[in-house]
Amino acid sequence: MPASHPTYARLGEAVKRGMVATAVLVAVTGALAPGTAVAEPMVTATAAEGIGTTEAQRIAAAGLVGLDPTPDVLLLSDYSFIRAL
Asked: Is 19 helix (H, G, I), strand (E, B) or coil?
């Protein structure tokens, strides 16, 4: 083989060095800028927890579309209530 082609042992060493170098770069980046290493929670996911309707709001919405809501329809989740409308 020509001298320009590395042997498998030399190739393995090169790959190992690359992996070590990558791990060192990740560690240094995490130490210098810890905010980038940790993902922040989605703002929309935390804001969605506050969504909800009251019984009066559901009765008013049902009245707009001409539906006379029964008590079991009022007990549905918001998504199911909208689908029932």
From this structure: helix
